[in-house]
Structures are given as C-alpha cells and as structure tokens.
C-alpha cells in the first residue's frame, strides 16, 4: 500500500503543472517574509530541490529548525500529513548594510561618520554583518578595516565601561526591595554586558553593566 502511495505521489509530481511550482514558491516566499518582515520587500526564495522531490499536496505545512540562519542556504521541512519532505532553498535578500568610508586602523576610535550604507545582497555577507550605523558612537576597531569592506560586529567593540580591578557599585533589586554594596570587577565589560564582581565578603556575583557604570542584578 505504501509503495502504491509513493508511486502515485511520483506520478502526480511528474505531471504537475508550472502553476504548482509557482504556488509552492509563493508559499515559501510568504513563509520567509513573515519570519523577517523588515526585509520582506527585498526577499526572493529559490527552491534548489528537484521538483520530483517536492511534497505531493497543494499547501504543505512548512517548518524550520529553531536554530536556522535568517537567510542564505536553508533546509525546510514540508509536510503533507505524515509524509515529510525536506526542501533545500536559498533565501536571497537585498537591503542596506554598513561599509567603511576610509581605512580604519586597529585600536582606533571610530564614529558613525566613518561608515556608510550600501545596497546589495545581505545573504552573501559575512556572519553578523552590521545593517545600520546605530550604537557606533565611541566604538573601537578590533582589526584593520579597509575602505568599502562590509563591517561585522566582531570588528568593533564599545569602550569599556568597567575595567578589571575597578571598584564598582552593585545594585540588587527584586520584588519590593533594593540593596547595594561595593565590590571589585573581575573583567572588562562595556555597557549592557555581563561582568563578574568579587564582593567584600569574597562572594563572586554576576550582573549587567549600566550606562552609569553600576552593576545591576535582578533577583
């Protein structure tokens, strides 16, 4: 019985009309556009899997693994009842991304004026490429960056708001209470990053660095 069902599915796909291909492509495009509405207008989905291996129903249920990348080459599950197929697709996205305006030396302080936005394929950029110039004030280059080079998050860091060995104020807050005490930072950290602090009693705690340099702990 299963062999017969498989044969029927293959025959159905063999005689599938171009309209079915368009419908599946449209469904996949809508699926990925809903997943990333910010870039929906510049998105195209290309199905790499041969049509003979496509699901044999009009509206398959589409599912992506939770750790899937946002764009590029992806594998998506398409289910028709108990029959599940995996489709290889390429999600192409066009949009704006950040590049360097000039040569930036490692260790130099940079600002938003050192960068510009260019338009192109986002799915072909290096991992963690920056798509805007926000949060670049007083940033520090971690490596040499050439003019016109796409900028990634690993190329820059914010200035240290807290440095190892520095005395800091730790503020713990919970439901209806606040407590504060001084300690010594054990690592460097920028605002919004996590820092470990050794308290006066020897206990080590972890908290988030605030913009004013205090260490915040939520209980």
TrEMBL record:
Gene3D superfamilies per record: 2.30.30.760, Antifreeze-like/N-acetylneuraminic acid synthase C-terminal domain (3.90.1210.10)
Chief localisation class: periplasm
Subcellular locations according to the entry: Periplasm
Domain SAF positions: 95-157
Originating organism: Pantoea dispersa
Protein purpose: Involved in the assembly process of the P-ring formation. It may associate with FlgF on the rod constituting a structure essential for the P-ring assembly or may act as a modulator protein for the P-ring assembly.
Family affiliation: Belongs to the FlgA family.
Annotated signal peptide: 1-21
Record's protein name: Flagella basal body P-ring formation protein FlgA
Coiled-coil features, chain-numbered ranges: none
Annotated Gene Ontology cellular component terms: periplasmic space
Stored Pfam families: ChapFlgA (PF13144), ChapFlgA_N (PF17656)
Encoding gene per record: flgA
């Amino acid at each position: 019985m299963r062999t017969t069902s498989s044969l029927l599915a293959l025959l159905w796909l063999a005689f599938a009309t171009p309209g079915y291909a368009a419908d599946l492509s449209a469904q996949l495009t809508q699926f990925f556009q809903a997943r990333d509405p910010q870039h929906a207008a510049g998105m195209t989905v290309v199905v790499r899997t041969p049509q003979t291996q496509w699901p044999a129903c009009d509206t398959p249920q589409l599912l992506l693994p939770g750790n899937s990348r946002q764009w590029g080459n992806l594998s998506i599950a398409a289910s028709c009842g108990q029959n599940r197929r995996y489709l290889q697709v390429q999600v192409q996205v066009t949009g704006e991304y950040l590049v360097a305006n000039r040569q930036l030396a490692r260790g130099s302080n940079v600002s938003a004026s050192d960068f510009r936005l260019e338009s192109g394929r986002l799915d072909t950029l290096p991992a963690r490429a920056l798509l805007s110039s926000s949060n670049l004030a007083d940033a520090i280059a971690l490596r040499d960056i050439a003019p016109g080079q796409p900028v990634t998050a690993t190329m820059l860091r914010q200035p240290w708001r807290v440095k190892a060995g520095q005395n800091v104020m730790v503020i713990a807050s919970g439901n209806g209470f606040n407590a504060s005490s001084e300690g010594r930072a054990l690592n460097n950290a920028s605002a919004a990053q996590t820092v470990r602090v050794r308290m006066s009693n020897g206990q080590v705690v972890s908290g988030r660095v605030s913009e004013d340099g205090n260490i915040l702990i939520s209980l």
